Amino acid sequence: xxxSVPGTAATLAASADPARVxxxxxxxxxxxxxxxxxxxxxxxxxxxxxxxxTARVLQQIDRPEHFVLLESSEQSELLAExxxxxxxxxxxxxxxxxxxxDRRAHRSFVPPCGxxxxxxxxxxxxxxxxxLYVVAHLDIAGAASQAPRTALERFRAAACHAAGNELxxxxxxxxxxNHFDLIARWSTRQALSAFAAxxxxxxxxxxxxxxxxxxxxERMYQPH
Length: 224
Fold this sequence. Notes:
Elements: H1 8-14, E1 19-26, H2 32-47, E2 54-60, E3 66-73, H3 76-91, E4 102-114, E5 132-139, H4 149-160, E6 165-173, E7 179-186, H5 189-196, H6 199-208, E8 217-223
Antiparallel strand pairs: 1-3, 1-4, 2-3, 2-8, 4-6, 5-7, 5-8, 6-7
């Protein structure tokens, strides 16, 4: 099964912006362990001789057979080059998949914030305890120019000042300017729940709700 996504590497190489790549991966329940091994091999391959590339594997908490692979670099051409060299490892996932890889190139939409943002967009933070990641997909109906930048900036600022937040980023899909992915790391689920019930979070959902082209999709992951 051919798993490379046409145009992903080319999109990265052609972009002058820092590169972000998000990949959703769904595998058989009996292949979870093997998938973890392959994804960690892929991350190691990306990092070899390319210290400016940061990558992280996340596993969905309520569906452990679903993974997200997050990759970022301040040099688009470097990530595109390393992706080409690592494709053979992703190809090995073919026998385990229950759906094709959903791989999307992004750019950073607003500056990231959080404890690790000054060092790396996706730091290799401690994985002990209750820490979790949240990935939310936001599809804004209409042209990219109508995207609610102000609402996203205010939401990001509120999240980064919230107790228990360790990282918050907003990625914009390179070939669909009205699609965004919000990536956050929280110290505990209680901290996430408290922020979700805050006035700032409710205001954000009220502002973007009428503009959504599809339901607001938010999922929780544990880091690997």
